[in-house]
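Researcher: Before we compare anything, I want clean individual predictions. No alignment, no superposition, just each chain on its own. First chain goes here; please echo the sequence and then give the structure tokens.
Model: Echoing the first chain and its structure:
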Amino acid sequence: MQKESWNSMSIILVTLSFLFVFISQNVFSAPSSRHLCLPEQRDALLEFKNEFEIGELSRYCYSVGQPKTESWVNNNDCCSWDGVACDTKSGEVVELDLHCSRLHGMLHSNSKLFRIQSLRSLDISRNDLSGQIPSSLGNLSHLTFLHLDGNNLVGEIPSSLGNLSHLTHLILGVNRLVGEIPSSLGNLSHLTYLYLGINRLVGEIPSSFGSLNNLYYLDVGYNKLSGSFPRTLLNLTKLSVLSLSDNQFTGTLPSSLFTLPSLESLDLGNNQFNATLELGNISSSSKLKQLRLGNNNFIGSIPISISKLANLEGLDLSYLNTQGPVDLNIFSHLKSLEDLDISHLNTTTTIDLNAILSVLKRLVVLDLSGNHVSAINKISVSGPHSQSITGLLLSGCGITEFPEFLRTEHEIFYLNISNNRIKGQVPGWLWTLPELYDVDLSRNSLTGFERSTKHRLSNVPKPSMEFLLGSNNNFSGNIPSFLCMFKSLRVLDLSNNNFNGSIPRCMGNFIKRSLLVLKLGDNQLSGKMPDIFLSGRNLTSLNVAHNQLVGKLPRSLSSCSSLEVLNVEHNRINDTFPFWLESLQKLQVLALHSNEFHGSLQYHPKVASWFPQLRIIDISNNSFTGTLPSDFFMYWSAMSLEGNSSELKYIGGDYRFYQESLVLMNKGVELTYPMILTLLNAIDISGNKLQGEIPKSIGLVKNLIVLNLSSNSFSGNIPSSLANLTKLESLDLSDNKLSGQIPPALGSPHKSIQDYSFSQPAHRSDTARDTVSDPRFLVF
């Protein structure tokens, strides 16, 4: 999964970089106008400005500047405003460039902006615009450029855009658009550039696209498009770039696709294309430079004809089900190859790393993950290739030794040698590689970090390091203090090792600067949690579960305003419930179970919304006493409000190394959730000393999936408001003093709920521990 996420993020960044370069070359500056702008157009622009607030800079923008609309004032010529260009003769506004202008608000269909008929170019990309794309855009009949990418636009693409007969560039990517692609876009006969990627579009590619004879760039990747390969695209002889990646296309590929005369880049990765891969009568004169076919259902051998692609610079054949030996000599003819991904080939062939590097001298990125790789340490230290490797992925390759040849790869910035059998210590020279910023050493048998005299000075980590994963090894002793020199760390995962001692206070060095994720769970750490989070405003996830930590939670955690996950389960923390964390408006998971928390849960929040984003709260197996306040369940709006249950999102999903796991009692079994869906809403208050009635407000958390109130002393009637929990799948009220019946609605035939209301309690100490396999809770 990490591998696919890395490839996906790389494709997104490449696409965004291409768009950025294009936009930068077409930034419109207003020429000195001979006429003042038209008053009615000036008024329309001012009204458009007032429709939006100035918010934060979009994450898709690369530079920080003043919002262009700040120069828009009523007492001067609008042709002199930033982002506005006028016709030098008529004074009409013809170009409007407001990309990266921090605009926040709804794009209104009745905006007077859409009455400026003279507009030829409109760029309002990379802002925070919401709402639907107004159909009135189709009235701007002179438009040649329309850029709306990088916003939060929803709804369907209006068919009226097909009226823009002069349009050459249509860029609607990186939004939340749904529905089918309107066939009317096939009317845009002048269109050369069409980008609809990273949306939620469904259906097939319209057959009308075969009429787009001038199209050279088509990207509809990262949607939910389906059907067989759209053969209508074979008519597009000028097509240079085609991306259908990350959709649900099926069937076979026409061999004539690979002989399109102008095609330079073809990306069909991450679909469900099948059968034998055939490239047809492809010739050595082919212009293909990028060929991405990975992660489909192709079977059979690698086509020999690939060796004819002399201009090829990037090749992805990952997850090709070869079912036998692979002829690696095919790649020896690809002298221009810079990026090669032949991971997970399901082959019986052992890949000689030295042979590949010695032949492909221009190679800079190589992914052999999931194959058996030999000769890992027989490569000459001087290096057989002329250009240094920048990215090397050898995950799951059966490697038993740390790749010694890497000590001379001074350009490498991404290294993944996870899921191998590497033993011994991490060598000190690794930290001397000047460009290294991303390292995955997880799931090996490493025991420590080399600190020999030879490397004592040189192993001071470089400030460029941002991602370091060392989970699931055999590291022991104290957490090395030299790791604190990584002041730019964003993700540090040392979970599932044998580290002991206390959490180093020096970790505050990167917590206050850059850290997003800190995972130290499943070790043998002891002592108090250091109070080092005062400036941790970027911290998104903190997991120190399954250790031997004592004392109280550090109060500085209340300063971590971005915190989504706090997991301290299975320690010996002795504290009252952390009501003081109520200021954390983004907190989604709070796991305190199996500690020594105590005291009352009676509390009146000081803020209007107490944990509004909370989706999972597990405070089981502690010593909380007293009664639950009547409004205890009233404030958790994320569990109450209806959401889009058809869309799968993962907590922390924005960070490719962030796979936040959680142990949760569900249907009588203690389950480990490797990744947490936002659909999983759970409350577990079992194993405490609570009494009194269950508050009727429990019926407000309508999105609840798991509810466990067992092993307390609750009394009175089972609240009828439980009938509102129509999504509930697991309910445990056992080992209490309750009377009455479970509401009948919870036991209707269409429900799969498991009822443990009056059964013997399923204690964590004597239940099986399993890994969740429900496809809604686990990504494959």
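Researcher: Okay. Second chain, same rules.
Model: Second chain and its structure:
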Amino acid sequence: MKRFWSRLAVELGRRAGLVAAVGLILTGILGFGVTRLDFATSQDSYLNTDDQVYIDNVAYQDLFGGQAMLSVLVTEEGTDVADLMASTENQAVFADIADQIGGSGDTEGVPNVEAVVTPLTALQLSDTLIQRTPTGEAAADPTQSIAGGALAFAAGLGGEGPPELQEEAGTPEAEARTQDTLATAERLGAIPVEQRTFDNPDWIEFLLRDNQGEIRKALRPFFPDEETAQVVTRLGGNLDIEDEGAAAEAVTDIVDEATIGDDAPMEGLSASTTVGAPTLLSDINDYLKGGLLSLGAIAVGVMVIVLLLLFQVRWRLLPLAVILIGVTWAFGLAGYIGIPLSLVTISGLPVMLGVGIDYAIQMHARIEEEVIIDRVAHPIQESARKLGPALLVVTFDAVLAFVALKFARVPMIRDFGDLLIVGIIVICFTSIILPIALLGMREFRSPTKGRDFRSGALGKLTVFLGSLPKWTAVPFALISGLIFVGGVVVEGDIEIKADPIEWVNQDSETVQKIDAVQAQTGSSSDLGVYVQSDDVFEQSTVTYVHTLAGCALGSFPDEGDSPYTKANCQEDYIPEQFVEVDGEEQKALLTASSIVTTMSYILEIPGATPLPPRAADVQAAWEQAPPAIQAFTATEDGENLNLLFRTGYSSLSDGEEVVTAIRTDANPPEGTTAVPSGLAVVGVGLLENIESNRAQLTYYAIAFVGIFLMIRLRSLIRSVLSLVPVLIATGLASLVAFGLGLELSPMTAVGGPLVVAICTEFTSLILLRFVEERERGFAPQGAADVAAARTGRAFIVSALTGVVGVGVIATSSLPLLRDFGLIVALNVVVALLSALVILPPMLVWADQEGREWVSRRLVSEEDLARSRGGKGLDADVPEGGDPSGPGTDRTPAGQT
């Protein structure tokens, strides 16, 4: 191998021009691959294609569309939604919004929109149910209409159907239902038939309010309160992020222009806010495209300062140039291979800069060490022979640490592992080839003349940091083990920051809109339940959906003789769902919306039994509903039905509890399935995948690197010594997070393997340099001191650049990335300080005469004998002579 490295150094130096030309050509070719990088923020990045959640969600979106855009309209002070809807001008605006977004006649509508339901559309459905028969004809009298017939049957006043869907005659519940039905008939009769039109405010009032003067429950998804109306636009299903973002922007522009634009004709409106998950994802996608380069530019800028101030060598910016070429090659290859960029992989650029620049710094520093201190005849060859194999070792360390990411359950974390594996291999190659070629050419043409840097501040600092007495090794070993075990014990109790809104820039317009919508309506998202059966309009399915919605919302009475009570929900279905927000318990699900609940709520009367509607009434309601509501609620083949809940939570951990309850306790009848779906469920699936093996990824990385080092270094002890600083850093991070009650960023799932890669890179180089000095005849303490003095400059500079590479992520405007960068940077600092402070005394202790656990089998018996019995060197001398001048024999006393 030594001949290989020597030959490589000679040929690269002789053909530096050719190397540079080939490098430029490769940079151009691979650089083009950067243009092929894809930015992925769809569910494919979060879920595996064989996950049941992914399969269900794809099917759900194929049937009922994708994410929703919510337009929240707030009325002026002194007006309410009845006034808003009574204006014929406002009705025309809502109709125009529906036409522009959803398309109608000659109007094409916004591409990739599944359906749009305005408050006007919701009132039109109410009008149809009250004035139309099941066949769509005008009802001659109220009892012949869809709603009238349903009310009459439930009260036992006429009609055919299962008797269990009627009140028991003579009961208080039957009396309450009869009285309310008569009250409804009286209110309806007060409005002449010819005046039951949308230009009559009294008719709008009747459609909007029930007999108690409250907004009808079936309309609350579109009128959450007296001052708020909502337009719901469902985008197409399974869209890519670009199409979804374009559709979201178009919907926002149309609604804003129609409601709050300079020439907006809408009356009585004080505010209009349009926002949704597609907007949030589009913002993230835009950030990915610009944030990648921004983070990289910041990292490069700080690294320039570090190199200029601290790396006192000729051509001190060469390592940065080398790493920029390597990173370009790495991302180009990623583009050709098809590795996508996501929220996680965006951090790959600064991470690769931080991890990879160490290689170039080490090679550059070693070449100048051979020139200035050892003054060997062939410094380039000597550097290649001694450092090349070590760089390959640390490259394997990093690659194996990153291989651990391939075991993640989240696709984008696995993609991050692929990116780093490709990147670190390419960077190692460039960091060996380019410095050897360019510095070889430089030294041939203009040999370096510089002063001895061992007495410099960085060399002294490194010696000082590693100067603890050797007796501290055993306590440090015990303490590191205890810290690691303690971290493992508390790891499962550390909370993950589970609210997606907290992952993005809190000052962004989108987040401010989401907060405004949340404050106004109590909800900014929904949860879909996808019900399937051979016939969703069959009575058992209708009754089931009615019961599921009532149980989940807690709208049934506590007890009673009917099956529709909270007690029965607790036993056979799911109880009312609650979540804790800011220390207070609140409802998890606020309203339910489906064609079944529309009819259920018509029948819901205070004091009466909450009876389910007849299946025939539900089917008639769907058949006569506006096309947009049909698209929202069921499929034409009658095999799929959509039940939508407005959610009162945003945290994925809260959502996980609700989704789990529906999955496990919803108890659908035989032949029917009820599957929670939609973006809320995708988020829950992402959280479950992250939590499933987040900590294990770190343990895998430690195990893979440990096994490799044990094989490569031919010793379990040497492997363990290399990992001690890693164990301290990972264990301490968990203990601190647990002790302070911190919520960690979900991206900390990739933090552990990063710390392992960066730290073992340093510990392996320190250990191998210690062994090299022992081979030269130094006693253990002398070897540690000499290694520290000679490599201190390179280690301190590369440590700082490594921390910068990871730490610069903390400057991101996304809290998800910012918190990750801060925590990982602190872990890396702890690990590197541990490597510089704790590892040297442990090496000295472990390699004392009689043990020699570090050097044995790596250093020949003859070389070890030179340092035994107090005969080892205790002062550094050049490789080719002593400090008095070049060429003096530095063979230790007693050796010939």
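Researcher: What stands out in the second chain?
Model: The first helix runs from residue 2 to 14. Additionally, Residues 472-523+717-865 form a domain with the Multidrug efflux transporter AcrB transmembrane fold fold (CATH 1.20.1640.10).
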